[in-house]
Amino acid sequence: MSGLLIVAYTQICGLRDRWRAHVRAGRWYEAFEEFIDFYNGPGSFARWPPPRREAFLAVQQTRGDLWDVLFDDGLLTLDALTSMTAPVHVIEATHTSVVDHAICEVIRRHVPHAQHTLIDGAGHMMPLTHPEPLTRALLSGIEHTAIDRNYVLTTTADPQPRAELR
Fold first, then answer.
1. Nearest to 32 by CA among 8, 10, 53
2. According to CATH, what is the number of the domain 78-165?
3. How buried is residue 146: exposed, middle or buried, by Cβ count under 10 Å (0-12/13-18/19+)?
4. pTM reported for the whole predicted model
5. Sequence-ordered alpha helix ranges (H) in the chain
6. pLDDT tens track for 59-89
7. How many whole angstroms separate alpha carbon 155 and alpha carbon 15?
8. What sign has the CA pseudo-torsion 26, 47, 60, 64?
9. Domains of the chain: which residue ranges?
10. Taking the mean position of all CA atoms in its chain, how far away is CA 79?
């Protein structure tokens, strides 16, 4: 494992362990304050308007198994990645954490058919900060997958695109 991957893995495992400890003690605010601040800088979560923080925390409390799913060593293996057949599109931001860059690198290296898009100037919260380039990247990935899978994308009055077999 490269030095970058070791640093990233150590950082994310530390975050995971602190997050789990906060959640087990019922300290949801502290758990997500550290999580949001990890990706967006110190004080980011505290700057959210109180109603937004409260709504976010209410939703997240229903997902208490988040880290257990993400860090199941029996599910997330290099063999599992190399044998993936589902379409994979890695959308990476230039201004994100070493952890996210390392995750993207592992996926790009071990998922042979993965598409990759790098969004310049974006960070971990690109859906909020860079929605247009993200939307373009997602649509490009959908079109690429449709072509590879021999689908034809059609649109109707319904704004939802439809995929049909050729």
1. 53
2. 3.40.50.1820
3. middle
4. 0.65
5. 3-24, 28-40, 44-47, 50-60, 66-70, 78-82, 98-110, 126-129, 131-148
6. 888 876 666 666 666 777 888 888 888 889 9
7. 43
8. negative
9. 3-70, 78-165
10. 20
